[in-house]
Amino acid sequence: MNIKYLAIFLSSIIFLLIIELIRKEKLTFKYAAGWLFVSLLSIVFSIFDQLLFSLADFFGFELASNFIFFVLLAVFVFLSLLMTIFLCQQNNRNDSVAQKIGVLEYEIEKLKKEDKGNS
Predict the structure, then answer these.
(1) List of residues 6+ apart from 27 with CB closer than 8 A
(2) Side-chain half-sphere of 54: how many Cα atoms within 13 Å?
(3) Closest CA to 48 of 2, 7, 15, 17
(4) pLDDT in tens, 58-87
């Protein structure tokens, strides 16, 4: 089997898997956008492999495989940074919700004490 066809097949499978996860609501588009972009890019580079070789040569890589590993590393670092940002935002929302729940519990206890005092 030609490696080009294998790359197209695997890239397409990953793309369809991400679409299916979004469709089943196991992954939101906000988190899947980066993965969709990467899988589409890999499909394009699989189909137009000369573009990959030209880019690698333009950026000074002697081997296209070194360029691929460099780009993958950069993409994963970027996606990791995005996930960290999303995690921090979620952490801040959790803190806010916990504080609101604490205030509500305090007010409920206060109302219960007032109700017992009036009975």
Answers:
(1) 18, 21
(2) 5
(3) 7
(4) 999 999 889 989 988 998 898 889 889 989
C-beta separation of 35 from 63 below 8 A? no
The pLDDT value recorded for residue 30 is 81
Q: DSSP assignment of 66-84, as one string?
A: HHHHHHHHHHHHHHHHHHH
Q: What is the rounded distance in angstroms from the CA atom of residue 88 to the CA atom of residue 30?
A: 15
Share of the chain above pLDDT 90, in %: 64
Cα separation, 54 vs 73, in Å, equals 19
